[in-house]
C-alpha cells in the first residue's frame, strides 16, 4: 500500500501444505535493495528459486550499471522472467514495491505469467486476496504518513487473514521511506 | 443468453463422439445481502443489481422480504429460487399466524427457514439467505444460512457475492476482532451501523462486478421498519 | 429429445426458435416489439409467425425461444382467460397476476428438469389507472419487472438504446418509435432476424397488435459500405 513518500508491504508467515501447517515463520518478502522489495506468494519452492534468481540478476545489474535498479525496471524484469516460462510457469504471483528516485511510491502486482498491474493505491495477492481487497478499499486513504500507513496495513492484513484458514500465524510489515526501512512483526491469531 | 450447460457424453458412445447438451437448472444472478444487529435495532442491506453473466438485465430487483414488523429475510443468489423461496416462506408465515393466532418470532422464522431449505436438500434452492430481526426482548439478531439450511445466530452476517470483501471489515469495526484486549469496543448506534454498511457496500461495488446500482437499507426498530435507499456505482 | 437413459423425454435444447423481444413501459401504457421470424438453426423457417400474443384486453405477451413451448403456454393462457371469463366477476385479471402465474408455470417445469424453453415478456396496464406494467419470465422461472426489457440479442443491442430513450413521462406514441428503431438495429445486427416486425401497444383503451409490417432499412451507411479494417474505423 502506498502513502505519502512511503510505501508498505506486508504478508503473513504461514507455510502450509493444503490444510497442514508446516512452518509459521517463513519469509515471503525479500529486500532487493534499500528501496525495493519483492513479495512472492504461491508455491514456496518457486518463491525461493525466483528470489535467488532475482538476487543474481540484480547483482549483475549493479555490476554492469553501477547503480541500484529502479522499481519500475525491476517489475518489468520480473514480468519478462515469468513470461519466459509461459508454457510451464512458476506458480507464484509477485508484488513489486519500492520508492523511485523522487521518493514516489511504486506498486505493482503480477499474475503467474507476468501480466503487470500497476496501481497507485494498493495491491493484494494470495489466498485471501478478495478479503484484503475489500478491507483495503474501505480503509485506504491518500497521502497517509508512515504511522497511519502501518496502522492501516497491519489491520487490513489481520482482518483478511483471520477469515482465511490458509493464512495467518503471524505477520510482518516492512515500511520503506526515504529514511530507510522499518520492519515490524505483528502477533496475529495463531490458528 | 440461453445456457445449454456442459455437454454430457451420450451413454454408449465409446470414444465420446456424440455430445448431448444438458439443461442446467441453476444460474447465479449475483447480489449481496448484509446485516448488522445492535441492542435494539437491526439493519438489513441488499444491493439491487441483477446480473446474468456480464449483462445487467435490470438494476432494480428487490432481494429483501418483509416477514413481519420485526423480521426480514434477505436473499442473494438465483432470482427464480429466491422468488419461489420467498413465496413459500410468506405462505408458511400466514399459515402459522392463522394456526397459532400470533406473529412469528425471530427464532421461529430462523428455524423454519432452515427446515424449508433442508427439504430441498437434494435439489437445493440456489440461495444465500440472512434472517434479521428483533427477538422477544427487543434485541437485534441475525442468522446467516448456506444453501441447504445450516445456520448460525450472530450479530453481523454477510451473504452473497461480496461476502469475502465485506465480512473482514465488519469483523474489525463491529466485533473489534483485531484488537488485542477488546478495550474500547464500540457499541454502534443505528446511524453508525448504517454508515458502516454504506462504506462496506461502496468498497464492494468497486471491486465486485455483481455489486452496484442501488443499496436498499431496511432499519428495523421497535417503531417498525424504515427504508433508506443509497446510490452505489453503476459501472 | 433424449436427455438420459430414462424413457421420458425432456427438453434439452430449443429447435425452432424466435429471437429477441423488446418492451418499453410508458406513462400511459406499454409497447412491445418483435419480428415475425422463427428460425430452425440457421434456416429462416417461418417468416410470418406472430411472436406477440394478446392475452386479454389489458395484457400482451411476447416470446423468444422454442416455438412449440410457446404454443403450449399460449393454450394454457387461453384456458386461463376462459376460466376468468366464466367467473364473470367483472374483475379483469391484472398483468402482474398473469406474470406471476407464468413464473410459477415456468418454475414448475424447470423443477422437473423439463423446462419450457422460452423468455416471455409480459406487457400490460393496470385496468383501473392505465399505469403500465412490464415484466419478464424466463425458462428457469426468473421473473422481474422493469421499465425496459429485452431478451436474447436485445439485451446487448436494444437494452442500452431503450435505457437511453426512457423518460418517466414518455408516451406510448413516442415509445412506439423507440421500439421500432430498436427493432431496426436488431435487424441490422442479429443474424437470426428479419425486417418484418409487429408492435403491440397496451393502453387503458385496450391491447392491440399491429399487422406485420416491413421496417424501412438503409444499407447506405458509410461503415457498412466501406467494410472493416479501415485505419481507426471498424464496423463494430
From TrEMBL, chain A:
<dbReference type="InterPro" id="IPR033811">
    <property type="entry name" value="Proteasome_beta_3"/>
</dbReference>
<keyword id="KW-0539">Nucleus</keyword>
<keyword id="KW-0963">Cytoplasm</keyword>
<dbReference type="InterPro" id="IPR029055">
    <property type="entry name" value="Ntn_hydrolases_N"/>
</dbReference>
<dbReference type="GO" id="GO:0005634">
    <property type="term" value="C:nucleus"/>
</dbReference>
<protein>
    <recommendedName>
        <fullName>Proteasome subunit beta</fullName>
    </recommendedName>
</protein>
<keyword id="KW-0647">Proteasome</keyword>
<dbReference type="GO" id="GO:0019774">
    <property type="term" value="C:proteasome core complex, beta-subunit complex"/>
</dbReference>
<dbReference type="InterPro" id="IPR001353">
    <property type="entry name" value="Proteasome_sua/b"/>
</dbReference>
<dbReference type="InterPro" id="IPR023333">
    <property type="entry name" value="Proteasome_suB-type"/>
</dbReference>
<dbReference type="GO" id="GO:0043161">
    <property type="term" value="P:proteasome-mediated ubiquitin-dependent protein catabolic process"/>
</dbReference>
<dbReference type="Pfam" id="PF00227">
    <property type="entry name" value="Proteasome"/>
</dbReference>
<dbReference type="GO" id="GO:0005737">
    <property type="term" value="C:cytoplasm"/>
</dbReference>
TrEMBL record, chain B:
<dbReference type="GO" id="GO:0005634">
    <property type="term" value="C:nucleus"/>
</dbReference>
<comment type="subunit">
    <text>Component of the proteasome complex.</text>
</comment>
<dbReference type="InterPro" id="IPR016050">
    <property type="entry name" value="Proteasome_bsu_CS"/>
</dbReference>
<keyword id="KW-0963">Cytoplasm</keyword>
<comment type="similarity">
    <text>Belongs to the peptidase T1B family.</text>
</comment>
<dbReference type="GO" id="GO:0051603">
    <property type="term" value="P:proteolysis involved in protein catabolic process"/>
</dbReference>
<comment type="function">
    <text>Component of the proteasome, a multicatalytic proteinase complex which is characterized by its ability to cleave peptides with Arg, Phe, Tyr, Leu, and Glu adjacent to the leaving group at neutral or slightly basic pH. The proteasome has an ATP-dependent proteolytic activity.</text>
</comment>
<dbReference type="InterPro" id="IPR001353">
    <property type="entry name" value="Proteasome_sua/b"/>
</dbReference>
<feature type="region of interest" description="Disordered">
    <location>
        <begin position="1"/>
        <end position="20"/>
    </location>
</feature>
<dbReference type="InterPro" id="IPR023333">
    <property type="entry name" value="Proteasome_suB-type"/>
</dbReference>
<dbReference type="Pfam" id="PF00227">
    <property type="entry name" value="Proteasome"/>
</dbReference>
<dbReference type="GO" id="GO:0005839">
    <property type="term" value="C:proteasome core complex"/>
</dbReference>
<dbReference type="GO" id="GO:0005737">
    <property type="term" value="C:cytoplasm"/>
</dbReference>
<keyword id="KW-0539">Nucleus</keyword>
<dbReference type="InterPro" id="IPR029055">
    <property type="entry name" value="Ntn_hydrolases_N"/>
</dbReference>
UniProtKB/TrEMBL annotation, chain C:
<keyword id="KW-0647">Proteasome</keyword>
<comment type="similarity">
    <text>Belongs to the peptidase T1B family.</text>
</comment>
<protein>
    <recommendedName>
        <fullName>Proteasome subunit beta</fullName>
    </recommendedName>
</protein>
<comment type="function">
    <text>Non-catalytic component of the proteasome.</text>
</comment>
<keyword id="KW-0963">Cytoplasm</keyword>
<dbReference type="Pfam" id="PF00227">
    <property type="entry name" value="Proteasome"/>
</dbReference>
<dbReference type="InterPro" id="IPR029055">
    <property type="entry name" value="Ntn_hydrolases_N"/>
</dbReference>
<dbReference type="GO" id="GO:0051603">
    <property type="term" value="P:proteolysis involved in protein catabolic process"/>
</dbReference>
<dbReference type="InterPro" id="IPR023333">
    <property type="entry name" value="Proteasome_suB-type"/>
</dbReference>
<dbReference type="GO" id="GO:0005737">
    <property type="term" value="C:cytoplasm"/>
</dbReference>
<dbReference type="InterPro" id="IPR001353">
    <property type="entry name" value="Proteasome_sua/b"/>
</dbReference>
<dbReference type="InterPro" id="IPR016050">
    <property type="entry name" value="Proteasome_bsu_CS"/>
</dbReference>
<keyword id="KW-0539">Nucleus</keyword>
<dbReference type="GO" id="GO:0019774">
    <property type="term" value="C:proteasome core complex, beta-subunit complex"/>
</dbReference>
<dbReference type="InterPro" id="IPR016295">
    <property type="entry name" value="Proteasome_beta4"/>
</dbReference>
